[in-house]
Structures are given as C-alpha cells and as structure tokens.
Write a structure and sequence with these properties.
The complex is a heterodimer of chains A (about 290) and B (about 290).
Chain A (H helix, E strand, L loop, with lengths): L1 H30 L1 H9 L4 H6 L11 H10 L1 H32 L3 H12 L5 H17 L9 H27 L2 H9 L4 H12 L1 H17 L2 H6 L8 H11 L4 H36 L1
Chain B lengths: L4 H29 L2 E2 L9 E2 L3 H6 L3 H32 L6 H14 L1 H23 L12 H29 L3 H9 L4 H12 L1 H16 L3 H6 L11 H11 L3 H28 L5
The chains are: A mainly alpha (about 290), B mainly alpha (about 290).
C-alpha cells in the first residue's frame, strides 16, 4: 500500500517534470521565433512571403544571399569588424590588466584616486562626448597628420579609451581578491624582475577573469554601431553594423535581400556562440559576481 | 611589495594616455562647447552665450517630452526585464533536464546587438504583423505596429526586453548559485512553502545581483539608441524619439553643436544622478548571512 502511493507520487512528479521540460522548450522556441522568421523568409520571393510568412520556403535559393554579399561587400566589412574587435579586445586585456595590477600593488593616494576616477567616468554616456571627440579626432587627423578618423587603427585606439574603466574594474577586483601578493614577494627574493614577474607569474593567474573581459569586450565592440558610424566614413573601412544600417537606410527595403543580409551578419555570432557557449555564459556570470 | 615609480608609470601610462585622449579631453571640451552657439563648421565663428543654452534646454518641449518618454520607457522596461529575467533564472536553475538548453537559447538575443535586433523586429512588428493579420483575420491586434504611436512605443519595450532579459538572467543565475542549499533546506524544514521561501529567503539573498541588474538595465534603457534608430527612427512623428536620439539629431542633423552639447551635458548629470541613487538605495538592502 505504502509503496504504491510512493510510486504514484513519483509518477506524478515525473509527469510534472516532463510537462515542465515541454513548457520550457516551447517557450524558448517561441522566444527565438523572430530569428526563425527572418531565416525562412530570406529564401522566399515576395509573392511566396505574402502567401505565408511562417512557412518553410519551397526551395532554398541562394539568390538573395549572393545579392546581399555583393551589395554589402560582406567579406570586406566582416574582415574590418574582425580586425577591430580582435585588436581592441587583446590590447584592452594587455593594457588594463597591467594597469589594474599596478594600481592594486601600489597603495598610494595617487593609485586610489586613479582607480576611483576610472570607475566614475564609466557613468559618462557616449552621447556626452561624441561631438567633442569627433572634433578632436578631426584635429589630430588634419593638423598633426595622425590618421585617427576614418581608420581602423584610430577606432581601435578609441575602443581602448572607452573600454578602460570596465576592464580595469574587473581585473582590479580579481587581483585584489584572488592573487596573493606573497607569491610575488617570493619571486622577487629569487631575483625576478618586475616585467618577468608580471608576465610569467601574475598574468597566467588572471586567466579566468581574462576570459570574462575578452567576452564582454568582444560582444560590445562587435555590435557597436554609433562610434564606428561617426568615425569610419569610407565604405572600405566600414564594420558590419555600420554597413547594415547603410543597407537599410539607402535602399527602399527589399525584404528578402535585407533578411539574407541579417542572417549573414548574425550567423558568425551564432557560430561563435555555439562553439564557446560554455565559456561565454560562465564568463558573463563571473563578471557579474565581481561586478 | 611597493612597485617602483618608474614601473608604476610604465604599467599605467599607455592606458591612461588613451583614456585621457578619448574620454577626459572630449568631456572637458564638451563642457566648453556647451557655452557657445556654433553650427559645427570650422570657418564659422563660435559665439559665447553663457548659460543660455542650458536655459533653452529646459524650455525645449521636444527635448522634455523625449526625456519624459525615456523615463516612462525605462521604468516599464526595467520592471519587465528584471521580473522576466528572474523567472527565467528560476526555471533554468531548477532540476529540469532541459535547463542548459534553456539557458543557451534565452541568452542568445543579447549577442546579436541592438542595431540588428532592431532591424529584425522592424520586419516582425511591421510587415510580418500585417501579413499575420490577413491570415488570421484579427486585424485589431495584428497590424503595422510601428506606424501607431502607442504600439511603436510598446514595440520598443518588447525589443529592449528581448535583448536584455537573457543577459540579466545569467547574472541572476550566478546569484542563485551562490545561495547555499543548506539555507533553502533549513527554510523548508521550518515549513516555508515555495513562495514564502522565494520572497523571504531567496530574494533578500539575491540583493547583490538585483543591484547589478537594476544598474545595468537602468543605464542601458536610459541611454538606448541603437534599438531606437533601427526599429522606429523615432517615428511615427517623433512619438518614439528617446533622449539619445534627440541629442544626436540636435547636433548632427540640425547642426546646433553648442546647444546639442548642452543637452548632452544635462543628459550626463541625469544618468549619473539616477544610477548613483539607485545603487545607494539597493546596496542598503543587501544582507549578509
């Protein structure tokens, strides 16, 4: 009798769990349905789209994709986005981790001030500095001949400046809580120079937070629109978001080609996500705990 | 181990140099520009007008209404995003088999980026809605949302929620995982039900995560631009123009560089004050175990 009720209760719980799983899956599918709708319609002609927007296409034609690739100069803008994102993210890791370590290990009024100042300036909205920044970059480009405007190098430099606060904050918190100073002292007694000490001993210990910093910066820089749209004026230099906005702004929208373009621009992100999904979610979580 | 001065300089100066050039100098120049009347052309003179630009900002009805709209948008979106994100986090930290699949899928929209999200939803809320209306015959609900003042505004909330909920979910997951099972077990032993445990035990212990999430959603919503420009371009008839877009248009479309910059400085103070107040208020409610 008692065993029977037990299995009955167990069966109920099992049924509840199956229902829970089904509900969760259905919800997620509905949640992501906009991506599905864009994908199926990137293969359809206008007439077919009007027949049923939700249905799968009759044939998978690459016609609209070919159109989108040539019109957007997809290979070119993809390369630009990749160069800017990779270089900025790597330089941010190198420079910000060095700065954060120096700020943690020197307990002076100056280091405390610099840290607080960096954090506080994170509150400045981009809209507040965009116009004067563009004036300054014009000046540097025209008067001093340093190519800041309309160059990928200049854009990378600007990302280092804008990313500094957040990245230093994350490295600073991690070094303070998880990197013991005693180890560094031991290395110094053994005759290790500061440069070697940092790169051989300290930096390898920063691996977990480095992953987080890279991921957060990559997501931000890859998708950023306003800054590159202000600095990059020639088509040859444009990044993916800037080109997408031109695509949607100048042509009266032909949705099938436009949707093929959207799928093309989202695809690299999704591939990257599925390859590194474990690290991405963990990295964002680690960033949240430190933040 | 005190770092020698030269090493300190060597390690910090490269970054601080970039930071100063990109953030500090423009910020200070921005304050300077905001006291002038100027159309942005180098050959035209900058006329000093003192605080006149600032006085005009507070008389500018379009700016004030976009500020009000942004505030309303922020309040609604912050609440919806955080409630939804917490519900997601509860679902994907449960014992369900598909919890990891759920995590991966719900976080995905955040990676796509505001501009592309805006364009995706421009189709969904525009043409796709119209077509659905023709198929289902429910044209009162399925119509071209983006050409209606209220529905375009709701559309912005939907898209911003879709973008941020997954990101906040991940932060709440981190917070929930740091709550030890012992405490939840103890609450259960003491006879607390599911909702009682949620409100009396989980929620207070989640306060640090709530502080972070509120901070992020609040400042992201207030500064929203990419989604705004891609989804509605501020239309119909400026009905969905948020503050960021108003500032951008004032400077770069209407060429009022000095006046637009004064708006930008006011914007900085508003964002700064709101986020500081919020962090203070929620940080007070954090509890220690």
């Amino acid at each position: 009798m008692s065993t029977k009720t037990l299995t009955l209760a167990g069966g109920k719980r099992k049924a509840g769990r199956i229902v829970g799983n089904v509900v969760l899956l259905l919800f997620c599918l509905i949640y992501l349905s906009p991506v599905y709708i864009i994908w199926v319609n990137s293969f359809k002609s206008r007439a077919e789209m009007y027949m049923n927007v939700l249905a799968l296409p009759e044939t998978f034609t690459w016609e609209y994709y070919m159109g989108a690739i040539t019109r957007m100069d997809f290979v070119g803008v993809f390369t630009n986005s990749l160069i800017v994102t990779v270089c900025s993210a790597l330089l941010l890791v190198v420079l910000c981790s060095m700065t954060a370590w120096a700020l943690v290990r020197t307990k002076t009024r100056l280091s405390r001030f610099l840290y607080r100042f960096l954090i506080l300036t994170m509150l400045i909205p981009f809209q507040t500095v965009m116009m004067p920044l563009m004036q300054e970059m014009n000046l540097l480009t025209k008067v001093l001949g340093i190519p800041m405007k309309n160059s990928l190098g200049g854009l990378i430099f600007m990302y280092i400046g804008f990313g500094a606060g957040m990245s230093v904050f994350l490295f600073h918190g991690f070094i303070k809580s998880s990197v013991p100073a005693s180890l560094e002292e031991a290395a110094i007694i053994d005759g290790c120079g500061t440069w070697q000490l940092y790169w051989r001993i300290v930096f390898p210990m920063l691996k977990p937070i480095t992953v987080t910093v890279i991921i957060l910066n990559v997501i931000w820089i890859w998708n950023d629109y306003l800054l590159p749209s202000l600095t990059l004026t020639s088509n040859a230099n444009k990044t993916i978001p800037v080109m997408t906005s031109m695509f949607f702004g100048t042509y009266s929208i032909e949705w099938n080609t436009a949707m093929a373009a959207l799928v093309l621009t989202i695809l690299p992100v999704i591939i990257f996500y599925f390859c590194a999904q474990k690290y991405i979610i963990k990295g964002v979580m680690a960033g949240a705990v430190k933040g | 181990m005190p770092l020698r001065k030269t090493w300190f300089a060597l390690f910090t100066i490269p970054l601080l140099f970039a930071f100063a050039i990109v953030v500090i100098v423009p910020f200070l120049c921005g304050i300077y520009y905001s006291f002038f009347s100027w159309d942005g052309l180098p050959k035209n003179p900058m006329i000093f007008v003192g605080f006149e630009n600032y006085a005009d900002v507070f008389r500018d009805t379009q700016f004030l209404s976009s500020l009000l709209r942004t505030t309303l948008f922020t309040l609604l979106t912050v609440v919806i995003v955080n409630v939804l994100a917490m519900a997601f986090a509860m679902a994907v930290t449960s014992r369900l088999k598909l919890r990891n699949v759920g995590r991966v899928m719900l976080f995905m929209p955040y990676l796509i980026g505001g501009l592309l999200l805006g364009y995706i939803w421009q189709f969904i809320l525009g043409d796709c809605m119209t077509m659905l209306g023709e198929i289902t015959g429910r044209e009162d609900l399925f119509f071209y949302w983006l050409s209606d003042r209220e529905f375009a505004f709701i559309g912005l909330i939907v898209v911003a929620t879709w973008q941020m909920a997954g990101y906040m979910m991940v932060i709440y997951i981190a917070g929930m995982q740091s709550i030890s099972d012992d405490i939840l077990e103890a609450a259960k032993m003491d006879g607390a039900g599911y909702w009682q445990t949620f409100f009396r035990v989980r929620l207070p212990l989640l306060m640090p995560s709530i502080t972070i999430c509120l901070f992020l959603t609040l400042s992201n919503c207030f500064k929203i631009y990419d989604v705004n420009i891609a989804l509605t371009r501020g239309g119909p008839a400026n009905a969905t123009e948020m503050v960021s877009m108003n500032i951008f248009n004032e400077i770069f479309s209407k060429s009022n560089y000095g006046y637009g910059q004064a708006k930008a400085i006011v914007f900085f103070f508003i964002v700064g004050i709101i986020t500081m107040l919020q962090v203070r208020a929620t940080a007070k409610r954090e509890v220690e175990v």
